[in-house]
Design brief:
182 residues, 2 domains, single chain, DNA polymerase, domain 1, (2Fe-2S)-binding protein, globular, 2Fe-2S, 5-stranded mixed beta sheet, alpha+beta, Ubiquitin-like (UB roll), 8 helices
Length: 182
């Protein structure tokens, strides 16, 4: 059984330790914001933050995640108030949305380390592929998020979705992959 902390909650996965973290998060924990894109680490759609580092969850196994602290897009800010999330919306850096969670996670990891990154640093830290081509707006969004973190500006954004306090505080049981089925 693999144990780790996911989105501030201790969890244990009763799955093969060689299972990619991506599939444990999606199939067992129902955290489907972490997207499957390529399965080979090229696209970044499955990016999560592990112990402060943006990592592709398709490339890290449950055994490698054992005892670590994992944050998915669902755990970044339950009310969608993280500066990178807000800046992505404000800068209209979201098109189809498929790659967005991975980009947000890579951006959040970068901003946590450096709230004033330059364009080169942003492009290096966010290797995600986006077929919609939002890259210029993405750079502006990450820089804007940095300004928010540095308290140079604020962003007025749409209201957060309704999440009850009971839902936010619920306990997470041991998780395993669904059995059987087609």
């Amino acid at each position: 059984m693999s144990r780790m902390t996911v989105n501030d909650q201790p969890v244990q996965f009763d799955m093969n330790p060689d299972t990619p973290l991506l599939w444990a998060l999606r199939d067992a924990a129902n955290l489907t914001g972490t997207k499957y894109g390529c399965g080979s680490g090229d696209c970044g759609a499955c990016m999560v933050i592990v112990d402060g580092e943006a990592l592709r969850s398709c490339l890290i196994t449950l055994a490698e995640a054992e005892g670590r602290y994992v944050t998915t897009i669902e755990g970044l800010a339950r009310d969608r108030s993280h500066p990178v999330q807000q800046a992505m919306v404000a800068e209209q850096a979201i098109q189809c949305g498929f790659c967005t969670p991975g980009i947000v996670m890579a951006g959040a990891a970068l901003i946590a380390k450096n709230a004033d990154p330059g364009e080169e640093e942003i492009r290096a830290a966010i290797p995600n592929l986006c077929r919609c081509g939002v890259y210029p707006r993405l750079v502006r969004a990450i820089q804007r998020a940095g300004r928010v973190v540095r308290r140079v500006e604020t962003i007025s954004a749409a209201p957060a979705p309704g999440i009850t306090s009971e839902d936010a505080a619920r306990e997470v049981p041991a998780l395993s992959a669904p059995q059987g089925g087609d």
